[in-house]
Design goal:
- 51% of the residues lie in helices and 6% in strands.
- The chain is built from 13 helices and six strands.
- Strands 1-2 form a two-stranded antiparallel ribbon. Strands 3-4 form a two-stranded antiparallel ribbon.
- It is elongated, with a radius of gyration of 50 Å.
């Protein structure tokens, strides 16, 4: 606080109890800086000690006192603002009062409700327990079934009825997809001695679909989707489908990259007729043409 121990009264009528402490702190810092600039290190030492002492005592006290007078300042703003028509000042005071007293109300702990006790169960009547007790029942003899010549009726009367067993649900084997066949046949397809390398060597790097000398990929002439369908329909096993789809006889050298025959064909089947799910090569080799004819015959698009 200031040397007189009083708070400042601001022009608007509010009390400022923190300003004197902060002003004294600023003055001490300015004095220390000036003494340091002039080379008066003794005054620097004294000013530094006073600044530390002020920061440790006066500034915290100023903060505490300002907190105490905060409700007065808020009430002063609210009442003075409404009286003088300064609604901005009135609104500021009202909001400060709401923050001060509303926050205090929120932080007030609420009394916890007393624990509820469970109702005591009434003791059961002694007559009820005695009524439940019963003498051991005598065994009841099973009615005699009428005798028949074969004795089957008596056997059926004494035997327990058999519960009808529900029919087990048919087990469905997991379906095989084209991607699974591709993964299983990768060892036969890829590599230096794989069916793709053999097809590229056989064609001399020429695409067997369009005739361009840019072949770098291998195409499954009979698509992997067709082989997956054969497995799922039961006409082939998985091992047979993997071996047949990745065999050299089913792999054709094909160009790749953007606009290449192999990416364009994809999972479609070779055919002589364009249409959904079909790929018509521009200049097919005889072995590719043979597969095109086989696909069209098996699909019913042309006569054998």
């Amino acid at each position: 606080m200031d040397p007189d121990g009083q708070c400042y009264v601001l022009p608007d009528g509010r009390l400022d109890c923190l300003g004197p402490s902060l002003a004294a702190q600023a003055a001490l810092h300015a004095g220390v800086a000036e003494a340091l600039h002039e080379g008066n290190y003794g005054q620097v030492l004294v000013g530094s000690v006073l600044a530390v002492a002020n920061a440790a005592t006066s500034v915290p006290i100023g903060y505490a006192v300002q907190t105490v007078v905060a409700p007065y300042n808020a009430s002063f703003d609210a009442t003075t603002g409404f009286q003088t028509g300064n609604y901005k000042q009135a609104l500021r005071g009202s909001l400060e009062l709401l923050v001060i007293f509303g926050g205090a109300r929120l932080t007030t702990p609420k009394a916890s409700p007393a624990p509820r006790t469970a109702p005591q169960a009434e003791p059961a009547a002694a007559t009820e327990t005695t009524a439940v007790e019963a003498t051991p029942a005598e065994p009841v003899a099973a009615p005699q079934s009428r005798a028949s010549g074969s004795g089957t009726e008596a056997a059926r009367a004494t035997s327990a009825p058999e519960s009808s067993a529900s029919a087990p649900a048919p087990s469905t084997e997991p379906r095989v997809t084209a991607d699974e066949l591709r993964r299983l046949g990768r060892g036969r397809f890829e590599g230096a001695g794989g069916s793709k390398a053999e097809a590229l060597q056989r064609s001399g790097g020429v695409c067997e679909h369009c005739g361009k000398p840019t072949a770098a990929q291998g195409d499954h002439m009979r698509s992997l989707q067709r082989y997956a369908t054969d497995v799922n329909e039961g006409s082939l096993t998985v091992e047979e489908a993997v071996e047949a789809s990745s065999a050299p006889e089913n792999i054709a050298a094909s160009c790749g990259g953007r606009g290449g025959c192999n990416p364009i064909k994809g999972a479609r089947e070779l055919s002589n007729e364009p249409g959904p799910g079909r790929f018509v090569p521009e200049e097919p080799t005889p072995r590719v043409q043979t597969q095109m004819d086989i696909n069209d015959v098996t699909s019913g698009r042309q006569e054998p």
